[in-house]
């Protein structure tokens, strides 16, 4: 040892980092997108970039849907995707946003809601959401059995996401129903179907192909011979060296700070046994 | 004096025209010429004085020309080690730094100096989460605290090979180091890094939670390609012949020996690796339970609380001979038939930085879950028992030496740990990194806090980064 030293924070203050700065004060950081040169909030840069570069599984969906619905009167479906950013501002209205992280479920169900969401025809404007003022009581009731319905303070429109949309709480959904349908209105049971949470087959195929490594067939360190080798250990394996086919990477995903006590947490339905990236191809 | 002269090559100096002519034999005696320069050291020999003379101006010229000459040879960056101090024949000749006039001017105009003390926070900086990018932030923290990488980039050794530097990930890495050592206290926003990684590793592109290990491998791959100016991965890069900084630091060699059970012929292959992925107990693959000290030695000073799996246990399992059953026969080139065999992996060559990846996921057909088994890992690790050379000595009947404290070749020190909390589908990454000698810090996106060694060693551990303690010349 060469003596001792004093640190500034010998009594660590739970809310302060090594520089003596308070946690979570960096909400307003911005950066300039290298692709479109727009100024973007730093904590939302990744989702922006995904769309900006036309990458990710949702971008082609948006493009395809636009093409498909260009002849369709119901334009709000495609607009819905684009207006996610705007809708996300609803977070700031009385919601319990923690840290600089993101809403708890990054796997938005937006891409799949069209499978089971029935849209009431007509009666609402082409911008996102439904204007509750234009709907009669029967239509309102119908809408509220399949959609979230929480009225955005920002746009004054009803949220058209699913009944379990992560952006709004059950509390909010209950109060909007009481407001629109009277005190006896109840929240319909969340659907038992699991489509919203899982992948469909075509998505997982897309992901699996994305996970295949680009690159030559020569073994490079990125093939991680060790991980291939250890994966092949076991009783019924053929020789591991023969298989040049690259396996999908088995992984632990992580991205957001864990939200410890989130009111929005609902019991997750069991994950469907779709072919997924975690399965062993062989 | 007379004895020395014949061995040196002399260049004969015609002082009138300042032209040189080369003589490889004994310098002719005067009056053919008055002076000569020896080509190895640039000394000037005067035939009149019959001695080497010192001339200030000539010394200056010689020094300058020498510096230029060495720079030309420094095309391939070499590992900067603490011990590199004399000419090694390649790379840069060590020379003391002398400020230029411009630098002296700058120093005079900027008298403020930064003093590095033990409680200094230089080199530490938070990283903003760009939207599910904590997996990337952890790897950035580990890389920016890899001592050799830090030395390489801060001594400005990267020379960009890419068509456009704005698409070079190595240049961006260099900028990152500048940012970390800038002294700024506000967290850095790694948006350009994300953009570059997404454009060069398309399989990672997409706004979603991802795996830190996968990101590490992809990042190393892109860095390695960009070191050679390979923009699109099309150039056939034989990783065994690459000498970029990434390969110098991270690439090891994994030896795989397959032994035929009939003729005992051994077929050996060596593959490069950047990480070692280790199976854990608690998964469906059978784990070999090792009782503490079963081979009579205490390895790596790990306390074997009964039941606790150690990193050494995992490495022992990784390098044990495995009998490939009758359903997995290998064609033996000696027997010319399919035979049962055993396979064994050992380390042929250890990288300077060894990354261990604990496979914390269950991957059987029906069950997908995270394995949270605690695995204890040491601050100091000796890799000797797992080397191919150790296996050879064991096989040759040589007595397995207890860990030789004088042999420092295979000793490693922990310097970064990446942890995951959550489930397979969703979670959050944080990391611990080591700064200075024994100070540890926890990096949670934008929040950097002091951590104790106990905090680090008690953590679950997903990626463990070890650095070789002693570096040598190749």
UniProtKB/TrEMBL annotation, chain A:
Which residues lie within the region annotated Disordered? 63-130, 210-282
According to the entry, every stretch annotated as the SCA7 domain falls at 135-202
Report the GO molecular function annotations. transcription coactivator activity; zinc ion binding
**GO cellular component annotations, sorted alphabetically?**
DUBm complex; SAGA complex
Q: For this UniProt record, give its keywords in alphabetical order, as a comma-separated list.
A: Activator, Chromatin regulator, Metal-binding, Nucleus, Transcription, Transcription regulation, Zinc, Zinc-finger
> Which residue ranges have biased composition labelled Basic residues?
107-118
Composition skew (Acidic residues), residue ranges? 79-88
Compartments where located: Nucleus
Pfam families membership: SCA7 (PF08313), Sgf11 (PF08209)
Composition-biased stretches (Low complexity): 63-72, 216-231
GO BP terms: namely: chromatin organization; regulation of transcription by RNA polymerase II
UniProt main location, coarse = nucleus
Q: Which domain of life is it from?
A: Eukaryota
Q: Which protein is depicted?
A: Ataxin 7 like 3
UniProtKB/TrEMBL annotation, chain B:
User: Which biological process terms from the Gene Ontology are attached to this UniProt entry?
Assistant: protein deubiquitination; proteolysis
Q: Which PROSITE patterns match?
A: USP_1, USP_2, USP_3
Q: Which reaction does it catalyse?
A: Thiol-dependent hydrolysis of ester, thioester, amide, peptide and isopeptide bonds formed by the C-terminal Gly of ubiquitin (a 76-residue protein attached to proteins as an intracellular targeting signal)
Arranged from A to Z, the UniProt key words for this protein are:
Hydrolase, Nucleus, Protease, Thiol protease, Transcription, Transcription regulation, Ubl conjugation pathway
Q: Give the EC number(s) under which this enzyme is classified.
A: 3.4.19.12
Q: What class of enzyme is it?
A: hydrolase
Report TM segments: none
Q: Where in the cell is it found?
A: Nucleus
| UniProt keyword Transcription present | yes
Pfam families recorded: UCH
Molecular function (Gene Ontology), one example: cysteine-type deubiquitinase activity
Source taxon at top rank? Eukaryota
Main localization (coarse): nucleus
- GO CC annotation: what is one? nucleus
Name this polypeptide is given: Ubiquitin carboxyl-terminal hydrolase
Organism expressing this protein natively: Chelonoidis abingdonii
Q: What is the lineage of its organism?
A: Eukaryota, Metazoa, Chordata, Craniata, Vertebrata
